[in-house]
Amino acid sequence: MTLLSPDHAPLVAGKRPADTRVVVAMSGGVDSSVVAALLKSQGYDVIGVTLQLYDHGEATHRKGACCAGQDIQDARQAAARLGIPHYVLDYEAQFREKVIDGFAASYASGETPVPCVACNQFIKFTDLFDTARDLGADVLATGHYISSRDDGEGGRALFRARDAARDQSYFLFATTAEQLKMLRFPLGDYPKTEVRELARQFGLEVADKPDSQDICFVPSGHYTDVVEKLAPGAVVPGEIVHIDGRVLGRHAGVINFTVGQRRGLGLGAAQAGSAGEPLFVVRIDAPRAQVVVGPRDALETRAVGLRDVNWIGPGRFEDLPPKGLDIYARVRSTRPPVQARLVARGANQAAVVFAEGEFGVSPGQACVFYDGPADEARVLGGGFITAVEQPFAPLPVPPGDVRRSEAERAVG
Description:
The chain is built from eight helices and 17 strands. It is of the alpha/beta class. The protein folds into three domains: about 150 residues, Rossmann fold; about 60 residues, SH3 type barrels, CATH 2.30.30.280; about 110 residues, Elongation Factor Tu (Ef-tu), domain 3, CATH 2.40.30. A hairpin with a 7-residue loop joins β13 and β14. α1 runs parallel beside α2. The termini are far apart. The relative contact order is 0.12. The N terminus and C terminus are likely disordered. One of its GO terms (biological process) is tRNA wobble position uridine thiolation. It comes from Methylocystis heyeri. Pfam families: tRNA_Me_trans, tRNA_Me_trans_C, tRNA_Me_trans_M.
């Protein structure tokens, strides 16, 4: 197999590799291990750091869990094979406070949280940054499939990975412009098959290790177990209601449902609508303990409201055109970006109006912005969905907000 040539451009302009210290976040998987090997082979002063993020007792031997006991051991073995220093740091308290507790609270409120975004935002790219600086690092490198390049204005810009099937830009939209100056992502131009081949050439035992599949702190794979343990008071029985107002049944707690869910509604014969069509969860009303169901058409989302918008595109977010900016938006990591218009609504808030309806969108998910549909499009930023406008139930609009009709006219 012919491998892509590693990029030998200096990680830090004007500084030789031998004089450049790089901390590599090593999870114990093949990707971060290859990053450490590549940079070591290019002559950089490499230090490996692995974060112990949760009590891995029952997950120690479970495949597909990051930073569990076996993963820490795999990271140690990779570092030893490469002859680089390796540290394991206990970040359990920070991870519990900033990621796990927030995940449980969000889920209990009827949202669909994305804990991997929070982990990157509050742990890997903040607390780990501090550790890297304490170790005298010039650069922090990770095994994410995404690219960063000079933006021509003294900073760096993010771009989707060349391998669209592996692209992880959805989980990294909250990375700030300041963080990007120190971050490097050496795998952005590599397909996974070639990364595994590189691992074999470097003699790494993790070359054929399976990829992580589940959220690392959910050993059973059942999110409800975590929520019930951390927020037991939030599990309240309630009604399952059709969008036409009919009460179809009862449920044991909204945490057992997600928007778009079709199976396991517990409705028996009522699981099919009056016209015989299958029913889906179209909205979760946690304050009322209601699960709202309807036909698939009711899942269509025309627009979303966003909070905590992070802008890493050119210029300033507050200087976007009043009528909005044409972008491509992505509401799930498994979906391609689609045409939309981004309308700023003040400090760190926005509305995104889709050119065509999206389906199965839920509050709590991320909405990520790109400057085009191509595999290597630039990441402009993103935010977290707070409100979803559906055809059957227009959203209430607080005073001062941009109403959807105005946003629609802006899209043209």
